[in-house]
Amino acid sequence: MRLLPGRFLARVTALPAIALSAWLLVAFLLLVLGQFTPLTGAALGLPAVVAACALLPRLVPDPPVDEDVPWWPVIAVLAVTAGFAAVQIAFHAEALVIRRDPASYAMYTSWIAENGYLPIPQQRELIAGDDPGLSYQSLAHYERDNVIWPQFMAGAPLVLAVGYWLGGLDGMLVTAPVLGALGVLTFAGLTARLVGARWAPLAALVLAVCLPQQWVSRFTYSEPLAQVLLLGGLVLAFDALARRRNLTDRWQSPQTLAAVAGVVFGLGVLVRIDAIRDLLPVVGFVGILLVARRGQALPLLAGLCAGLAYGLVAGYGYSYPYLEYLSDSLNPLLLISAGVVFATVVLTAALWRYGLPHTERVRWLPNAMALFTLLVMVGFAVRPLLWPDYGHGSDFTDQWVAYVQGVEGLPIEGSRTYYDMSLYWVGWYVGLGTVLFASLGVALVLRRLTLRRDPYWLLPAMLLVWTVGTTLLRPAITPDHPWASRRLIVLVIPAFILFAVWFLAWLTRYCERAVDAARGGPLARSLPAVLAAGAAVSLLVPAAVTSAWGIMGYRQDVGTVAQTERLCESLPARASVIVVDSGMAGGYMPLLRNVCGVPTAALDDPTPESVERVVSAVHERGRDAVLAAPEWDLLAELTGPPVEPERHFHVVAEMDPSTLMEPPTGHWTFNGSVWTAVLPAPECPPTASCPDPVTSTS
After folding, report:
1. Quick one: pLDDT at residue 66?
2. What is the 3-state secondary structure (H, E, C) of 280-321?
3. Cα–Cα dist 507/535, whole Å
4. Cα separation of 538 and 547, whole Å?
5. How far is CA 81 from CA 63, 153, 186, in A?
6. Residue 694 has pLDDT above 50, yes or no
7. Cα(627)–Cα(163) distance, rounded to whole angstroms?
8. Quick one: which H or E segment has residue 322?
9. DSSP-based three-state secondary structure for 633
10. At what angle do helices 365-386 and 422-430 cross, to 10 degrees?
11. Rounded CA gap, 658 and 230, in Å?
12. Residue 111 Cα to chain centre, angstroms
């Protein structure tokens, strides 16, 4: 079969979602069984990925015959993807000390990659038993009964673990930039399908240069993987619906692609629990397909349920303390989801006999839909002037926001959420021109859908408009930047870029038709090309300027990997580590336990008496007691001579700044130290049970 550019672009942009979904389907089952190891991953996961990548892309339909795709867009898309990956790998962060989510995901990954199971044992029996002064909970690690559950969903760690197996900590950290590059590639594929292959390089480049895409791809965040799955679900759903199949038709490739699209969508919940909100429009779309008697409806629904099952098992089986923490927002979301399912069932039954309403027959409705869309965007624009938002519901968040306000010279209002600024956040990162073009684009797309034109836009418009609207209304995140840009990068910023590029493509074609109708001369005929070039510049320049003047010119937490390895090597083979500083315990306990593989606990109220008690209990177990603190003075005070504390971890590096009313620029400084004092166990007494030396908890 001849390798055509359009066919190649369609298939290669579907591959990331297919490959990652195949891996997640197998890897999560291995984790459930407690057998998530390099051997089982290679024996079961790798064949699944190879089979999926070999068979499923063959089902992707070719572009329409009237779309003559040249090779240059394909080469440009691949060049943008490769360039993005290279730059992000070169600038990847080394976040291992937990301050915010990246290191939390890294510690989760390190544990399952080394041990292959959850939950994490507390190993009280190797420290001081049930001593009431010890605690085992830390940042992003919840203590329940006699085990520890890591925070967050399992999806991203299951993928990052592949990099850990191949290259240790460094391999894990550079896997994140690769996922970010796959997100750019997948987005290019969606643009090629919805707008045209010639516009895909522009869309991919705008996404690649915008600061949030670069930023999340340098850290071990879950957003890049979620982006690949949700955008990839739209790509595969488009391909599945490209050919009409009726409910009674026999199973063929469109039904298979629909089922795969459903699985890919559903697995988004395995990566991020809030993907449940993003997927609600897919439920409604299944109802529309059923009313339209489309054969892809039931396969899409079955695949969606299968993927959701993985996510719900992961959430309630392996991240339940995290879901408890989110209960104030998660429980209402689950109720809304149940309402959406119920309403879809009722409306599908009501419309089954009569079919979908003919909205195109209501003459005023298409224009009203477009006008309403523009008014909503105007509402978001004037929201800061009319409805400033307050109320985090968290004293800690109030204090942090107040601190950042002080740094930025703003009035101190700790309860200010800045959610009313959400549309301007998008403008910071992709430019106000993109926001304007996207607003016009979505208004025109919804108008055409109301006229029952361009049906291939229905699912993307439903999902993207819903997600943009709900996210801008309530981002539900601490509002300092670049941190808050995480909420935008999975679907919101891609949606703005996609609709803006679609509008520019529509405007260019409109000018071409106008010039042809007017039979203009050479100068007039060059107008569409000039318009397209100018529009491309208007999209690219603001995004590139924000990134170049922002925080993209340095690596963050550099040196942490080397210092972590140095710290781990310094610990005795039979070490049991006691962290004697509450401020340090939250960020460093997972590093000691999950990476160094030593039993670790925190002493809540360290005094010479409590330290002596715990150390004696450790020694009774034939273990070497190791005290850890961020300062030499604290250890010297608690131990005294002849013990001499040593510093085996010391990092001074650049880290993210935090801003509230302007795009992030410059950097702050991360200064991390770990001092340790080793108190070796005396020779094993005859009555003691002295375990063999261990270097890992696996």
Report:
1. 55
2. HHHHHHHHHHHHCCECCHHHHHHHHHHHHHHHHHHHHHHCHH
3. 10
4. 15
5. 21, 27, 10
6. no
7. 32
8. helix 320-325
9. helix
10. 100
11. 28
12. 20
Q: What is the pLDDT of residue 696?
A: 36
Q: Extract the tokens encoding 3.
A: 């390798």
The residue type found at 16 is: P
Residue-wise pLDDT tens digits, 127-148? 988 889 999 999 999 998 889 9
The CA distance from 284 to 268, in Å, is 17
Q: What is the pLDDT of residues 27-81, one digit of tens each?
A: 999 999 999 999 999 999 999 999 999 999 999 998 876 568 899 999 999 999 9
647-686 per-position pLDDT tens digit:
999 999 999 999 999 999 989 999 999 999 999 878 655 4
Who contacts 540 (Cβ-Cβ below 8 Å, separation ≥6)? Answer: 202, 205, 206, 209
Distance, in Å, from the CA atom of 307 to the CA atom of 270, rounded to the nearest integer, reads 8
Residue pLDDT, tens place only, 353-383 = 888 888 888 899 999 999 999 999 999 999 9
Q: Are 647 and 584 in contact (CB under 8 A)?
A: no
What is residue 479's predicted lDDT score, i.e. its pLDDT? 93
CA dist., res. 468 & res. 473, Å (int): 8
Cβ atoms of 106 and 128 closer than 8 Å:
no
Query: What are residue 601's phi and psi, to 5 degrees?
Result: -145, 165
- DSSP string for residues in 468-490: HHHHHH---S---BTGGGHHHHT
Q: Which of 446, 479, 472 is nearest to 381 (CA)?
A: 472
Question: Are β-strands 668-679 and 624-629 bridged in parallel, bridged antiparallel, or unpaired?
Answer: antiparallel
Distances from the Cα of 128 to the Cαs of 572, 581, 599, 619, in angstroms?
17, 18, 10, 9
Separation between Cα atoms, residue 652 and residue 632, nearest integer Å: 17
Task: Determine the Cα–Cα distance for residues 133 and 618; give it in Å rounded to an integer.
Answer: 14
The yes-or-no verdict on residue 3 having pLDDT over 60 is yes
Q: Rounded to an integer, what distance in angstroms lies between the CA atom of residue 139 and that of residue 100?
A: 9
Which residues, other chains included, contact 250 with Cβ-Cβ below 8 Å and sequence gap of 6+? none
Q: Considering only CA atoms, which of 323, 278, 671 is closest in space to residue 467? A: 278
Give the C-alpha distances (Å, rounded to integers) separating 308 from 61, 70, 118, 359: 27, 39, 20, 32
Radius of gyration of the CA atoms of the chain, in A: 27
Residues 291 and 347: their CA atoms lie apart, in Å, by: 9
